[in-house]
């Protein structure tokens, strides 16, 4: 993977947390790539209706990868799944937590880039190549990142600008996640950013690859986008 020695030294302190819902066609590709890097992994199966849990269990039997597999009894959504994964990671004593999706749109080969940056930061957020995004999503991401960055700067009283606030591919030092409010659903990336900024943590960004392939199903709808906005407003009002 071409990692520096200092980056290799933090691998055993790092775990990858992956929420997965109906990802039987993608999750093994993700795990195989993580295995090549040599990282531990926590997968939270959010009550999938396909064979996601089963294929992971089968993969575990012959893999060198240390996989902690959590299965939600009912569908809890991305935020609650991430919260369960983080709680386990904290209880196991990991110092760095990588967040990524299980649909293979995020590429595990980019994890070393995130870990290399974390040596001089408290959190590193991935920035997707906007040229690969559909034009409508590109415009929405620009607007969302600008408005959220403005809100975060006002909330934290410190200037922050995020190029891709909605990207869920990131690494964060676990000590800053002990009392984080994850919220509900797809507002989780935004809410984490608000709280990290409020703590004054040093956040960097790094470019990451993205692939919109046929087996990657987007669960983002207009209703969920509106819900994200509502959750951010409610979070700010409570504070």
Key phrases:
239 residues, alpha/beta, Spore Coat Polysaccharide Biosynthesis Protein SpsA, Chain A, 7-stranded mixed β-sheet, 8 helices, 7 strands, 41% helix, globular
**CATH fold-level assignment:** Spore Coat Polysaccharide Biosynthesis Protein SpsA, Chain A
Please provide the ordered H/E string of secondary-structure elements: HEHEHEHEHEHEHEH
CATH superfamily placement:
Spore Coat Polysaccharide Biosynthesis Protein SpsA, Chain A
The residue ranges in which pLDDT falls below 50 over 5 or more consecutive positions are none
Largest sheet: 7 strands, mixed
**CATH architectural group:** Alpha-Beta Complex
Indicate how many domains the architecture comprises. 1
Instruction: Write down the overall geometry.
Output: globular
**What structural class do the secondary elements suggest?**
alpha/beta
Count, helices? 8
Strand order across the largest sheet: 3-2-1-4-6-5-7
Q: Portion of residues in helices?
A: 40-55%
Range of strand content: 15-25%
Q: Can you give the mean pLDDT?
A: 91
Span of the ends, CA to CA: 43 Å
What CATH first level would be assigned? Alpha Beta
Gyration radius, in Å:
17 Å
Number of DSSP-assigned strands: 7
Summarize the structure.
The chain is an alpha/beta fold and 239 residues long. The chain contains 8 helices and 7 strands; from the N terminus they run αβαβαβαβαβαβαβα.
Task: Characterise the protein shown here.
This protein is of the alpha/beta class. The protein has a single domain, classed as Alpha-Beta Complex (Spore Coat Polysaccharide Biosynthesis Protein SpsA, Chain A), CATH 3.90.550.10. The chain is built from 8 helices and 7 strands, in the order αβαβαβαβαβαβαβα. It has helices at residues 5-9, 27-37, 52-61, 78-91, 111-118, 135-156, 188-198, 222-238, and strands at residues 14-20, 40-45, 67-71, 96-99, 123-128, 170-173, 203-208. A 7-stranded mixed sheet has the order 3-2-1-4-6-5-7, with helices on both faces. α6 runs parallel beside α7 (188-198). The longest helix has 22 residues, at 135-156. The protein is globular and about 50 Å long.
